[in-house]
Amino acid sequence: MKKMLALLLALTMAFALVACGGNNSSNTGNNSGNNTANDQTGDDSTAAGGEVYYLNFKPEQDAQWQELAQLYTEETGVPVTVVTAASGEYETYLMSEMGKSNPPTLFQVNGPVGLANWKDYCYDLSDSAVYGELTSDEYALKDGDAVLGIAYVIESYGIIVNKTLLAEAGYSVEDIQSFEDLKKVAEDITARKDELGFAAFTSAGMDGSSDWRFKTHLANLPIYFEYQDKGISSTDAIEGTYLDNYKAIWDLYINNSTCSPTELAGKTGDDSKNEFLSGEAVFFQNGSWEYANLVGEGKYTDEDLAMIPIYIGAGDEANQGLCTGTENYWCVNNSASEENIQATLDFLYWCVTSETGTQAMGGGEGAMPSGEPGMSFVIPFKSAIESPNLFVKQDAEMLAAGKTPVSWNFTTMPSEEWKNGVGSALTAYAAGTGDWDGVVSAFVDGWASEYALANG
Amino acid sequence: MQRSLKRWWPVFLLPTFAAFCVGFVYPFLQGLYLSFCKFITIDNPTWNGLANYVYAFTDASFRQSFLFSTAFTIVSTLAINVAAFAIALALTRAIKGTNLFRTVFFMPNLIGGIVLGYIWQILLNCVLSLLEKPLLSLDATYGFWGLIILMCWQQIGYMMIIYIAGLQSIPSDYLEAARIDGATSWQTLWRIKIPNVMPSITICTFLTLTNGFKLFDQNLALTAGEPAHASEGLALNIYYTFYARSGPQWKGYGQAKAVLFCLLVIAISLIQLRATRSKEVQQ
Amino acid sequence: MSKTNKIANTLLTAVLTVLSLAWVYPVVMILLNSLKKESAITTSSAFQLPDGSSFAGLANYADAIGSKGFLSAFGYTLLITVTSVALILIFCSMCAWFITRVNTWWSKACYYLFIFSMVVPFQMLMFTLSATADKIGTSLTLGNLADALGFTVSKSTAEISLLPVNTPYGICIIYLGFGAGLAVFMFCGFMKSIPLEIEEAAMIDGCGPLRTFFLVVMPILKPTLISVGILETMWVWNDYLLPYLVLDRTKGYTTISILIQYFRGSYGTVEMGPMMACIILTVLPIIVVYLLCQRHIIKGVVAGAVKG
Questions:
Q1: Helices A2-23 and C70-101 meet at what angle, rounded to 10?
Q2: What is the complex's ipTM, to 2 decimals?
Q3: Which of A106, A376, A396, C94 could bond B12 through an S-S bridge, CB–CB 3.0 to 4.6 Å?
Q4: Considering just the CA atoms, what is the radius of gyration of chain A in Å?
Q5: pTM for this structure?
């Protein structure tokens, strides 16, 4: 009898917890879903027909998507389910969901290479209203004439500068206009490291938490300049004409960092961020998405920070802007039912045109109707609102000043394997266990072989 | 009684068997069939003959993961069993606090593989970072040994419990007789204790062997196969083949690999059981 | 002799003490770090104790419980574990009794099938099982049943699943099927040693098979029930891949093992503080339960292994 009682108690407790988790589903985690909204409107939805199931990529924006979905459901009666995949699990989760009876109607790919994997599932968006809202055709992902993906967020990256520390070292952001300037400043800071109490660059973080900053984002620059020289936008074999510049900037990073080059492999991206936050380093290569992590209570204000282009000593440095582009494209699942596809297109259109939608996607503090912060995205759509993100504003200023942004060509990198190869070679080079030839080989030969594999 | 009971099969046998069909028999047979097919979902398989198996045998990453799993299994089986047996021997001596020690050593078994993986990732990365060595996910050698340490930490307690039970069940007159005959403790260990705990050794070796090959959660959470699939065991390799690649061919490859994996685990279980059973003391 | 023995024992105790401290340390380390501020948690300082400037109190715990949905994941995990283990214990012991007492070719075949299933790795069924569960869960609905029988129901009732195996409420059926092997095997091993006479006496006294089983066999079976229950609980509670692939996450169903993965952002940054808080919240109840009934647990493991 006592056993039965214990069992009953456990069950009641389980149900109570589940129920209490469900009650505040609007702001509970990742995928507490908005099933409450579904239930309420379940009967009306037959009229509208169709449902939306969005498999979201960015865990940090999950709460906003959940809220937005619920608002849309309240407004139109169309059920919208948002599920967020855990980081690093997006592709595997999308794959397992695609095999189910109710697959996602809306998912995302990261660019041409990601598209190659999924294009059989992508609905042609060329006649859709949301495509018409794009500010530039550049932000559409095309396969021939078909528009298979639409960018929904534009991001910039460069070198984030702690202006306060830079001033302490006796410089200002204006002093850095080229790779030579950057090198001079960084090496001067390193020379006076003990006296100043801080280093030039944050440590690297070569594990999965931030290796993309170097194997992908930094590697974009030599690729960009090579593409510019040749006037191409993708290639089956990279020559590596600017690899010496890549080496120069990488050397600068690792030799002027908070720790010695051999220790770099023992640091994570979080370490790097924390060093920047605690004022141990002036420069931190990262992007506009990092804004929310750097500014706020107990952190920095807009006054302290700036983002400068990554100069590698190539091209026209006086007119070089930030690296701006996207690797987040919305795709609509063509295997979904017609009503679901239509419902998804309507939802997307609402997100990028309605007051609520654009506020939620573009706004910062308090932009959500619930008072929570918005997603702070820069969205490439006509009704986009001005972003509160400092780095984004800087990007716009540079653009207005006639500087040319560096486009994101890393979306044409042949595969993840290629990036990993370059990443490992960079790590080995920094640690002294490998030489620069290893990086060159991973970069050039790896490109050719991976391209052949991927497009074989 | 047998006859009257036999009519009751729908009550006694059917519920479990029906669930067993849904949860095992049907998926198993379907998986077997699909390993010869090309498919994206289970609704549209097309016959593909042995192509999937041919691919599985030529796939370098599968071979690599096989080697990784084999090495891992051998090292972890040895390490866990030797350590567990040693601790069990120590704990069967008349020392204070045996219960407390037993409790502590067994505790990690109750923690799930994913959680364990994250705990050890934090701990090992800290050690590596202080030693100025690359992190777990950057160096497959550290990843390998990290996994070994993790599995030892988790499983030694479990195996220890089994060994303790085995040691305690040795009839005390055997040990008494050995003592009277003047056997050294070393001789007692090899001549009396080990032969008499052979059943326990069989079980523990069997458990650690299959656990080693089936390793998944810990592998996923600790290293996720990084760097570049170099610390990826068989189970994880199959999972990635299924879910990390899109395209109609991959599911079939994954299923074929899974069948091979399954055969391997079955073969090991059979060989191992036979080999150690024959060494058991006839009582 | 006895003096050297004493020294040896003292030495041994010392070694074991050090070892057991090492055994507890990882969990303690996570506990200490979960009390630190986010910015104070770095890779190389994990061994440092939190101090005045880095101490964050319970903020990480509030975050883990508040915004990450820890409680609902905990509730679902508890629900799944309790229902699955209860089903396994009741049905598998009944099944095992039948198999040992009824000696026909098909009961033997069942037995060997069950044993076979113990060896098969989950990867073999991973894809097909999740697809099957999805099919059963989404297509065996009241609506489809009503269609087949020729009448209509309202849409909200039509969506009710008859066998919701892809929800925490029905996934226990999958666990019963997949976990049956070990349970049946262990029950059979024990049942063979129960003398037939007791049951036969009960049957002759007019008890039907059901009453005989529940009133006579079940009480004798109690130790085995406990050990099977413990082994299956350890498995189901900690299982990751099966619920990850099977549960319908569009309805918001998660388990703790799945939730732990959500502390990583899309750009690779990990919210270490809340993640460690979540780990501790996961581990603590397990340790409490373990300390409360460790005698049973350890006995259960031994019995399971010896029978196996």
A1: 140
A2: 0.86
A3: C94
A4: 24
A5: 0.85
